[in-house]
């Protein structure tokens, strides 16, 4: 039974800047909770497809195109872990969130091994759920953009060419290392927003261990030095989260 889930009175807003709504698959065998979350998300202008068990959820996933899936763990016919593994066979990239009343460490580990992007323990508030949902969508959107064809950026008075790994300031160009170029591209794609430290490490180094973290700190120090010619550009630390590249005008791509 779901306890502690409450509605807020936030104003309706578009789920994406380009007004394209998010398609979400919700698989939850608790009828009341499923309808509560569906109504809440639809109020926030998400498109929600609700399934009552894992077998139905898999069928609807095969017949639809979803931006994210929210899966209950304990379900009849097919549990959430099994469903996640089946989804991963069909789609390696779609984000997955598990909902569960089980707080055991082993269950969380099994969830992440099944391909989960997040693991939310009941009870939770709808506000927390929505914030975590948005955070995952931002990360996956940023990763998609990182792997996209965006190659050139104007950063204040600087021109950055990712393919050629060059940074040009007042007709003077310098060559960047591969890591420097990769990190600067991430900053460009997240200008004036927090770049999560662990996300940056996993995207570029594929591992967020201590040694890679120290290496990234060195590269950020170098990028700050390279960009100091334009006093309106700044890379700041955001305590406990990561970094933010502040630019007076949005970085053009």
Structure report:
With 253 residues, the chain is an alpha/beta fold. The protein has two domains: 23-145, Response regulator (Rossmann fold), CATH 3.40.50; 149-246, Orthogonal Bundle (Arc Repressor Mutant, subunit A). Helix content is 40%, strand content 21%. The strands form three sheets. It has a five-stranded parallel beta sheet, sandwiched between helices. Strands 6-7-8-9 form a four-stranded antiparallel beta sheet, covered by helices on one side. Helix 3 links the parallel strand 3 (68-72) and strand 4 (96-100). Helix 2 packs parallel to helix 3 (80-90) and helix 6 crosses helix 8 (210-226).
Quick structural summary:
The chain is α/β, with parallel strands linked by helices. The protein is 40% helix and 21% strand. The model is unreliable at 1-19 (pLDDT under 50).
């Amino acid at each position: 039974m779901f306890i502690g889930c409450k509605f807020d009175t936030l104003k309706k807003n578009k789920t994406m800047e380009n007004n394209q709504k998010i398609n979400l698959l919700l698989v939850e065998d608790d009828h009341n909770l499923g309808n509560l979350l569906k109504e809440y998300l639809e109020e926030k202008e998400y498109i929600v497809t609700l399934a009552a068990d894992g077998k139905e959820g898999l069928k609807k996933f095969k017949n639809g195109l979803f931006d994210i899936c929210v899966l209950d763990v304990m379900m009849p016919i097919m549990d959430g872990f099994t469903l996640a593994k089946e989804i991963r066979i069909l789609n390696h990239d779609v984000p997955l969130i598990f909902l569960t009343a089980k707080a055991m460490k082993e269950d969380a580990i099994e969830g992440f091994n099944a391909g989960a992007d997040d693991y939310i323990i009941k009870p939770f508030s709808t506000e927390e759920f929505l914030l975590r949902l948005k955070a995952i969508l931002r990360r996956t959107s940023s990763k998609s953009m990182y792997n996209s064809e965006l190659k050139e950026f104007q950063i204040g008075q600087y021109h950055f060419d990712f393919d050629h790994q060059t940074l040009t300031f007042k007709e003077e160009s310098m060559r960047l290392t591969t890591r420097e170029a990769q990190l600067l591209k991430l900053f460009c794609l997240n200008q004036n927003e927090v770049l999560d430290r662990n996300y940056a490490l996993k995207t570029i180094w594929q591992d967020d261990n201590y040694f890679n973290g120290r290496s990234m700190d060195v590269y950020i120090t170098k990028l700050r030095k390279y960009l100091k010619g334009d006093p309106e550009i700044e890379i700041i630390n955001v305590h406990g989260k990561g970094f933010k590249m502040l630019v007076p005008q949005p970085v053009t791509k």
